[in-house]
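G., before I forget:
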Amino acid sequence: DGGITQSPKYLFRKEGQNVTLSCEQNLNHDAMYWYRQDPGQGLRLIYYSQIVNDFQKGDIAEGYSVSREKKESFPLTVTSAQKNPTAFYLCATMTGDGYTFGSGTRLTVV
Amino acid sequence: AQSVAQPEDQVNVAEGNPLTVKCTYSVSGNPYLFWYVQYPNRGLQFLLKYITGDNLVKGSYGFEAEFNKSQTSFHLKKPSALVSDSALYFCAVRERDYKLSFGAGTTVTVRA
């Protein structure tokens, strides 16, 4: 979807396990975002980064961590502290007035 | 308080009829407003945006939206709906730090 690659498409996590979701972009955009989607709740912001080596918590950051070591990459780690991680996760980038979304990763706890 | 509200969880229309998906916002100043569409297990696709200028904004796939400042609304419209328009639609507003806040989404079903 528009130069943003999210992988894997589907991910299964066991209880107490950390997992990392990948987001890579070739759009040369500075700002990157992670959203969580649950049915009936829209999209909620987890973390965002406006520049390399800097990131801020969004509305629901507890139980998640991120890094931004390269402009192209913004991986999201779902830690064992996240008690209800089953959801659809979307990565996005922004430049000017426009936002572009990846195709998402569906995480399921088994 | 939620910045964006979509008052209808579902909208059902017959093919060929007009389609309206409602959105109201509650940010101060001049809002940057967006509409996105999502098909099952896919990311969000951009439909249109309002930044400034004409209150009627035209977007992708024949959609348009009307910005109404006095009613703080940004309703999405399509004059003649298609079965392929059946999807989940999100309204969003840009907050400070360039973050997007989304409504809860409206599921549109267009019956043949």
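The radius of gyration of chain B is 13 Å. The interface with chain A takes residues 9, 32, 34, 36, 41-46, 49, 51, 90, 97-105 of chain B (CB under 8 Å).

More on Monday.
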